[in-house]
Specification:
There is one protein chain. By secondary structure, the chain is mostly beta strands. The chain is about 5% helix and about 45% strand. Strands 2-10-9-4-5-6 form a 6-stranded mixed β-sheet. The longest helix is centred in the first third of the chain and has 4 residues. The chain starts with 10 loop residues before the first helix and ends with a strand.
Length: about 160
């Protein structure tokens, strides 16, 4: 006879606020993520923030709550990441969103002392800045002999 026991964290009962998912931001803007939580008196051992689109997942940030400071931050985020961790809230801000670097799935993880893990996953979508389009209006007199569209979507008329 085999007995399997699974311990599952009830994250919905713990989180009082989570970022919208997907979290959409315009390139160059800051990505401001905030989680609120009620841990029922349990103590936080550490907070982790991971990029989970890659395999294996990339640990971006680790905050050791016992010491109360960042214990790990990967080089790509030095100078680009601000974090604030309290007993009831964590805010993480990534400065200057970049569509090629920051558009990924991320996991926010709370590791409690002697308890199961609590996590939340958020997808960040960084949208490129759109440039305004110029519209030209013109009049002509003549006969259109050829009309074609190039690879950039521009229309050309050959008038004789």
């Amino acid at each position: 006879m085999f007995c399997f026991c699974f311990v599952e964290s009830q994250a919905a009962d713990v989180f009082t606020a989570i970022p919208p998912n997907p979290f959409t931001v315009v390139e160059g803007s800051n990505i401001s993520l905030e989680w609120g939580y009620h841990l029922g008196g349990r103590l936080i051992e550490r907070i982790e923030f991971r990029e989970i689109t890659s395999f294996p997942a990339v640990l971006i940030l680790e905050v050791d709550s016992v010491v109360g400071r960042i214990s790990r931050l990967i080089n790509d985020y030095i100078g680009r990441l601000q974090v604030n961790v309290t007993a009831t809230q964590t805010s993480i801000t990534i400065l200057g969103a970049n569509s090629t670097v920051d558009s990924n799935d991320y996991e926010f993880l709370i590791v409690l002392v002697g308890s199961p893990l609590i996590f939340n996953v958020v997808t960040i979508s960084v949208q490129g800045k759109y440039k305004s389009r110029s519209v030209f209006t013109f009049q002509f007199t003549g006969i259109v002999r050829t009309c074609f569209k190039d690879t950039f979507g521009l229309y050309f008329l050959l008038v004789h």
